[in-house]
Amino acid sequence: MAIKDFPIEEYVLPGSAACPGCPATIALRIVLKALGKKTVMIVPACCTAVIESLYPHTSFNIPVMNIAFEAAAAGAAGVEAALRKLGKNDVTVLAWAGDGGTYDIGLQALSGALERETNFIYICYNNQIYSNTGIQRSGATPYAAWTTTTVGGKKEFRKEMGDIIRAHHIPYSAQTCISYPDDLYNKVKKAKEIEGPKYIEILTPCPPGWRFSMEKTVEMGRLAVETGVWALYECKNDVVTFNGKSRLILENKIKRVPIEEWMRPQGRFKHLFVPKKDVKRIKALEEHIEKIWERYRKYYI
């Protein structure tokens, strides 16, 4: 669906506590347009737990349950069970968590809910850090990136969450990005119509966390896809399909943009270029990304 055809109803209202250029708010605005009014959202400790406040008591025009950091999926499972008991089968249960509450703190509850085939949508908005608590590293933080807990650059590569999710063999999972709103909208709409557990991960480039100017939010997401740092795909009943430019990269119809073009505008990678270029670590990240694409080509072509 083209952006001009998106529903006009807004469920993220003016007057939130979001940062300027906030990608999580962009993502949630699109997601709720796709899901509609009959949605109950479960939010653990994360940026969104702060964003939702202010106007006049909340800026979200749907029911929201706030819950502990590790319990988004468990809370959503409880809400889904209660709605089912009441016979309210037309309400979508949405767990909405950051990468810290998904890759790390909330992984056990998420895995359990997927195993039990809970009928809900779990969305991870991935800004690759614990942004709300001061920009600490998470399992989603890229190799060599600066955070307040990896001041010399993270020493580990990011966790491949998509692989972990697909190992649960759920009906639907997907990766998307706020820079491709039509892709995001269509994947959420598709998930809404599928029975059982659904998982969608949205790359949400964070201006204060990644250290770039707020007007470049959409550009940074596009560069992530064009460099192959982030892939757009969906998996329905264990069949994986790549989307957009990611499909062209997979099929070797276009080359990945050099990873430096994504890294240079981000202050979190500044130490790799100033005072002199750290060729070794930049090359290590480039080679790691290429290995991921080689694995994609081996299994999904």
Q: How is this structure best described in words?
A:
The protein is α/β, with parallel strands linked by helices and 301 residues long. The chain has a single domain, classed as Rossmann fold. Helix content is 37%, strand content 15%. The protein has twelve helices and ten strands. It has helices spanning 23-35, 47-51, 72-85, 100-104, 107-115, 161-166, 181-192, 207-210, 217-226, 244-250, 260-263, 279-300; strands at 39-43, 64-66, 92-98, 121-126, 129-130, 136-137, 172-177, 198-203, 233-236, 239-242. The strands form two sheets. An eight-stranded mixed β-sheet has the order 2-1-3-4-8-7-9-10, with helices on both faces. Strands 5-6 form a two-stranded antiparallel ribbon. Strand 9 (233-236) and strand 10 (239-242) form a beta hairpin. Helix 1 crosses helix 7 and helix 3 packs parallel to helix 5 (107-115). The longest helix has 22 residues, at 279-300. The chain is globular. The two termini are 26 Å apart.
